[in-house]
Design goal:
Length: about 180
């Protein structure tokens, strides 16, 4: 009887190990590759191509030198100095009623990305509010809050086309082409 119990115990042990190891999976599962799509060759008949009419070139009014403003640290309110600069922009925009405007707002690199994105949106909105409260129609204005300001390129980086920096750009307000 001792022999049958030990044979029985050994059989149970092997069955348990077999079940245990058969339920284990490897970290990499075998995935069958998707079949490649069949390429059907089509014969292209000669078609007469109509020449597209050239779009009429519209002369765009431009204002080359709008003022940019800076905000105080962690603020989006317009200072007295900034209001004077924006008032000058308003006069130029009134003199050129066909010019559209885009307001781009940035922040410095202090703080988290999400916080700076929200702050830049509030800054852009405050500039748009200034313009609209001073007579510039809001349908002439597009605005963007772009978060942290791009890092300017050094001379060496500009020569090597480094993807980690951007060429200096004007921040705040600048005219854009009218919508079509």
């Amino acid at each position: 009887m001792n022999i049958t119990i030990s044979k029985f115990s050994i059989i149970i042990l092997f069955l348990s190990l077999g079940i245990l190891f058969s339920s284990c999976r490897t970290s990499e599962e075998i995935v069958e590759p998707e079949p490649e799509p069949e390429v059907a060759e089509e014969t292209v008949e000669d078609e007469e191509w109509e020449e597209e009419e050239e779009e009429e070139v519209v002369e765009v009014d431009r204002i080359e030198d709008l003022n940019t403003i800076n905000f105080d640290f962690d603020r989006y309110n317009i200072t007295d100095r900034a209001a004077m600069l924006l008032a000058d922009n308003v006069e130029k925009l009134r003199e050129n009623p066909n010019v559209r405007l885009r307001v781009d707002a940035y922040t410095d690199h202090v703080g988290g990305d999400q916080y700076n994105l929200r702050l830049s949106l509030r800054r852009a909105a405050s500039v748009v509010d200034f313009y609209t409260s001073n007579g510039v129609s809001d349908d002439r204005i597009d605005s963007r809050g772009l978060g942290k300001a791009p890092v300017p390129c050094s001379e060496a980086e500009m020569d090597s086309h480094s993807p980690g920096c951007e060429k200096n750009r004007r921040a705040e307000s600048h005219p854009i082409n009218p919508r079509r």
